[in-house]
Design a protein that fits this description.
Elements (H helix, E strand, L loop, with lengths): L1 H20 L5 E6 L2 H10 L2 E6 L2 E6 L1 H9 L5 E2 L25 H14 L4 E8 L5 E7 L10 E7 L7 H16 L4 H9 E6 L4 H9 L53 H10 L6 E7 L3 E4 L11 H19 L4 E4 L11 H7 L5 E6 L16 H21 L4 H13 L4 E3 L4
Parallel strand pairs: 7-8, 7-9, 9-12, 10-11
Antiparallel strand pairs: 1-3, 1-4, 2-3, 5-6, 5-13, 6-8, 10-12
The protein binds N~2~-sulfamoyl-L-arginine (0X9) and zinc ion.
N~2~-sulfamoyl-L-arginine (0X9) binds next to strand 12.
Length: 427
């Protein structure tokens, strides 16, 4: 009996985060997006999945439904539409996450790329997650081990655990660049003239939890010591952190919980510290879903004084993306749409470091998938349409790389920063 109790309490301990926060009682609901219900919805602190064609989609708990009913806000339950057609989420090909990368699969594939193309690719461990997983950067450049006087750009993926496609697009970008370096003159020009950093998985602990326990998990795995788990990594950056309670939440149970202070989360410290060593000229952070290109500000509806150039670059990326599969990603100012965010990546990289910064919300698109989650067969089409935009941004960095005086500042910062830990490829 005692043994059974020990086993049961162990299971409860393991399942703690699941029982504490969610189970199968969540529904995906659709709400008509209009200006009248905007304030009320923001106050309810709902778990927003995406905005699409005048609707917003939410992962709603029973309490959320009660709150919506109390405010007389109409909604439709659409859970049945949001699972892959034939297979369940957990039975797609080749394991729990199919062709999408798990943490160990990504680690293996990044190492293999660096192993196969050691002249242009290096895997660098930029820091550890809360659960001691490595946060990897794939660094791509000619003379990749050297600090050269050249432009630099960063692509990030998967701040939010459930956004699996946001790992694949930056990973495939890195793969494309190194595999085509030897044969494609344009790729060679970009790689020769730019120091390209790709961090496909900012939130490895959350991703693993999403794969193995709860597909909708969004935050990291911080134990908030009050029965709740997780900080929203896209609310933990230091620029205007906690500016208001609309763009993030002080409530630890919220899906947009900002943490107890700016940069409390090690995953975000890793990104911050990398910026302490590099002078990036531009940033993209991949998310999903919504199929849109967002630029600062997110914390306010107001435009920044760089609105024109931010829109110009975003719109150019939008046109390039549309030319591939015909899908339109509108370029918009983040805070001018339906909702505000504070402490997000792009407000920080733009506000603190002054560089053009984009959140690219990847699809789904009902014309391809017919449901909410992307199918494995959507990975390549989504990557393909994002590729020319990423190449354009790398070229933009090269074209606008500043003069020598900026470079010497870069070298000073490089020497002051803590050393990066280089993981040599496995042989
Ligand atoms: O809310 C976020 O952190 C992002 N969207 S997501 O659905 N992937 O979670 C980015 C939001 C961008 N900023 C604003 N809309 N203000
Ligand atoms: Zn996201």
């Amino acid at each position: 009996m005692k043994n059974i109790l020990i086993v049961l309490s162990f299971i409860c301990f393991i399942l703690g985060p699941i029982d504490a926060q969610h189970s199968t009682d969540r529904e995906i609901i659709r709400i008509d997006k209009n200006q009248e219900n905007r304030e009320e919805l923001l106050e309810l602190n709902l778990d927003l999945l995406m905005e699409k064609e005048g609707n917003i989609y939410i992962v709603a708990s029973p309490n959320d439904l009660i709150a919506l009913d109390a405010k007389n806000i109409p909604y439709d339950i659409e859970s049945h539409k949001f699972y892959p057609r034939e297979q369940g989420v957990f039975t797609i090909q080749s394991g729990a996450n199919g062709d999408f990368h798990s943490y160990t699969e990504l680690e293996r594939d990044l190492m293999a790329l660096a192993d196969a193309y050691p002249d242009v690719a290096q895997v660098i461990d930029i820091g550890d997650s809360l659960e001691q997983r490595n946060i990897y950067a794939l660094r791509i450049s000619d003379n990749v081990g050297l600090q050269e006087n050249e432009a630099s750009v960063i692509f990030l993926g998967c701040h939010h655990a459930r956004e699996w496609i946001s790992v694949e697009v930056p990973y495939l970008l890195g793969k494309y660049l190194v595999e085509n370096y030897g044969t494609d003159a344009e790729v060679k020009r970009l790689v020769d003239n730019c120091d390209i950093w790709i961090v496909p998985l900012v939130n490895p602990d959350g991703l693993e939890y999403s794969i193995h326990f709860y597909r909708y998990w969004r935050k990291n795995m911080r134990n908030n010591e009050d029965g709740t788990y997780g900080v929203d990594l896209n609310r933990n950056y230091g620029y205007k952190w906690g500016w208001d309670n609309l763009g993030s939440s002080p409530n630890s149970a919220s899906e947009v919980y900002r943490g107890t202070g700016p940069f409390t989360e090690p995953e975000i410290q890793a990104v911050r510290d990398l910026f302490g060593q590099k002078n990036f000229q531009a940033l993209v952070s991949y998310h999903n879903y919504s199929q849109v290109i967002l630029y600062p500000w997110g914390f306010t509806e107001e435009a920044s004084d760089k609105e024109d150039i931010l829109f110009e670059i975003g719109d150019k990326m939008s046109q390039l993306m549309k030319s591939v599969n015909g899908r339109y990603y509108a370029a918009e100012r983040a805070g001018a749409g339906f909702y505000l965010t504070n402490g997000d990546t792009t407000d920080w990289s733009f506000g603190e470091h002054g560089i053009p910064s984009y959140t690219i919300e990847l699809p789904p698109d009902s014309r391809i998938t017919g449901e909410f989650f992307n199918a494995e067969s959507d990975i390549l089409p989504i990557f393909n349409e994002n590729l020319p935009a990423a190449l354009y941004l790398i070229d933009w960095c090269i074209q606008t790389y500043p003069s020598q005086s900026h470079t010497s500042q870069s070298h000073t910062r490089q020497q002051q920063g803590k050393s990066l830990r280089i993981r040599y490829p496995v042989t």
